[in-house]
Specification:
This protein is α+β, with helices and mostly antiparallel strands. The chain has 2 domains: 118 residues, Phosphorylase Kinase, domain 1 (2-Layer Sandwich); 173 residues, Transferase(Phosphotransferase), domain 1 (Orthogonal Bundle). Helices cover 31% and strands 13% of the residues.
């Protein structure tokens, strides 16, 4: 029997490895817009998105220990049948102490709203969101800001409310951020579905403001700081069952963010143009972004964050006034995030706890 030369075997193995590492690069979307557009309601069985993401399964799992969830259809991703329904304890994935059975039943299902995102589980048992950060040369600024915010020791600071990027995965010119899965955004706090008290809401608002102050102190403006981009792990729902602990509040989605170089004078921290076409925002914006003059992006953040909150009926004039002062049309009259945090903090400290432990009507 003829023996195959060892060198030939090694060469063949290298060729196979190279093919597997580089497999189908031309079949992946080339831009972030292309990735997003994989989410197509006219493709209910998710064939289009599933076909693209499955090309990355082996790479993610072998190199990074990240296993994608199974795509059942356009609106449903779940863990694989042979995987546990729930993650392992990891400090990020948390369930509410209220209606825990309902939380458990809902956890192993995720409804995507973009083709640039996919649910997965790490080798150490944390359920995570995998998100396309850069593709086709777009998104480099987003990635640099994420890297900056995730530096040690800053990412460990209690005042840093940026949702951590646990891993950065790379394939060709495409980079993917891996972020802990979270269950709700700040809009949900005010829905009738959840029995959060005025105290619950105020503490979450103050946590978010603490995170905004941190960003601004580090010369970073978010520029899309609506409540959907402020997230929490679980709802306190103190009106049902009093909880001692409070949920951690995180800020996400820095795609439109801007970071000024160290040493830039405050008066020079201006942006000449809004990061996306105003007619495609889908949300109201303050008057200054419609003008030809450069605007202050930090004042923009304050307006965006407070725009929905201004309808929050706490029952306290002092709270309503702070929110109104954050949302003034004239940016020169608008208070800063630090001023808002200081005023709300002073108000809460001066109130008897029982006066805040009450329901609120919600949004008008």
């Amino acid at each position: 029997m003829n023996k195959i030369p060892l060198g030939l075997v090694v060469s063949a193995a290298l060729v196979l490895w190279f093919f597997n590492e580089k497999k189908h690069p031309n079949e992946l979307p080339t831009t972030i817009a292309d990735w997003r557009n994989l989410f197509d309601l006219d493709d209910p069985y998710n064939n289009k998105a599933g076909a693209k993401w499955c090309l990355l399964e082996e790479l993610f799992q072998k190199r990074y220990g990240v296993k994608q969830w199974r795509s059942n259809d356009i609106r449903s991703q779940t863990p694989w049948p042979d995987d546990p329904r729930l993650p392992k304890p990891n400090g990020f994935n948390l369930l509410s102490h209220v209606e825990t059975d309902l939380c458990i039943s809902r956890w192993p299902r995720w409804c995507p709203n973009s083709g640039a995102q996919h649910m997965a589980r790490t080798s150490w048992g944390c359920d995570v969101m995998v998100r396309v950060v850069t593709s086709g040369g777009v998104g480099e600024n987003h990635r640099e800001i994420l890297r900056y915010l995730n530096r040690a020791p800053d990412i460990l600071l209690s005042s840093n409310h940026v949702l951590p990027m646990l891993e950065e995965m790379v394939f060709e010119d495409i980079s993917f951020g891996v972020f802990p899965r979270v269950e709700a955004d700040l809009c949900d706090v005010f829905r009738d579905t959840f029995k959060n008290s005025v105290e619950d809401a105020l503490y979450m608002i103050m946590e978010a403001l603490e995170g905004i102050v941190y960003l601004h102190e580090h010369r970073i403006a978010h520029q899309d700081l609506f409540l959907e981009n402020v997230v929490i792990h679980w709802h306190p729902e103190s009106l049902v069952k009093r909880a001692v602990g409070r949920p951690r509040v995180w800020i996400i989605d820095f795609e439109d963010a801007v970071m000024f170089p160290e040493g830039t004078k405050v008066e020079d921290m201006k942006v000449a143009k809004f990061p996306r076409p105003l007619d495609q925002c889908g949300r109201p914006q303050p008057p200054e972004v419609y003008k030809p003059e450069p605007y202050c992006p930090f004042k923009l953040d304050v307006w965006q964050f407070s725009n929905t909150l201004r309808s929050f009926e706490s029952g306290f004039d002092e709270v309503s006034q702070v929110l109104a002062d954050m949302n003034k049309d004239d940016p020169e009259e608008r208070i800063t995030a630090a001023q808002a945090l200081d005023r709300l903090g002073t108000f809460v400290r001066e109130q008897p706890p029982s006066s805040l432990h009450k329901a609120f009507p919600g949004f008008t």
